[in-house]
């Protein structure tokens, strides 16, 4: 598990039943949900939870640094609770499943000085794409 709930408790995040459901939906490994997916799952546990409540809670979690926004397809922003262990993403081009992966070596170090154009480079995101085992069998 990503330990999101424990981290939030440790930080004294005000845990109403609605906010707890948002955190529970996001907790876990390899979780990369869009805001709409978080809302749909939250409604399954707490039918009255509103989209606005979910969006506000997501914004707070991102501001706290406990959830990171990732975009692996250039479209919908996804929310990732694995905020404290740097990782990259492995994405299936067939079904879209996303795995957290930890490549060896520092992707930042792979960019030579002459290709930095004077930038102070802070982060690098690498997305590995391919077919997952079940899509590869089809
Ligand atoms: Zn797949
Ligand atoms: Zn991730």
UniProtKB/TrEMBL annotation:
What the entry lists under InterPro entries is as follows: FUR (IPR002481), Fur_C (IPR043135), WH-like_DNA-bd_sf (IPR036388), WH_DNA-bd_sf (IPR036390)
A GO MF label: DNA-binding transcription factor activity
Residues engaged in binding Zn(2+): 92, 95, 132, 135
Query: Which processes are annotated in GO (biological process)?
Result: negative regulation of DNA-templated transcription; regulation of secondary metabolite biosynthetic process
Cofactor(s) needed: Zn(2+)
Q: Which PANTHER family match?
A: HYDROGEN PEROXIDE SENSITIVE REPRESSOR (PTHR33202:SF22), ZINC UPTAKE REGULATION PROTEIN (PTHR33202)
Name of this protein: Transcriptional repressor
């Amino acid at each position: 598990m990503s330990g999101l709930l424990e981290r939030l408790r440790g930080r004294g995040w005000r845990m109403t039943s609605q906010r707890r459901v948002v955190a529970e939906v996001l907790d876990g490994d390899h979780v990369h949900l869009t805001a709409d997916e978080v809302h749909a799952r939250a409604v399954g546990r707490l039918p009255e939870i509103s989209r606005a409540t979910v969006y506000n809670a997501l914004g707070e979690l991102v501001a706290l640094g406990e959830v990171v926004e990732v975009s692996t397809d250039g479209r919908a922003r996804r929310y990732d609770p694995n905020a404290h262990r740097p990782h990259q993403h492995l994405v299936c081009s067939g079904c879209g499943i996303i795995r957290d992966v930890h490549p060896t070596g520092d992707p930042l170090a792979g960019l030579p000085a002459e290709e930095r154009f004077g930038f102070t480079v802070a982060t690098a995101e690498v997305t590995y794409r391919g077919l997952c085992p079940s899509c590869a069998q089809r």
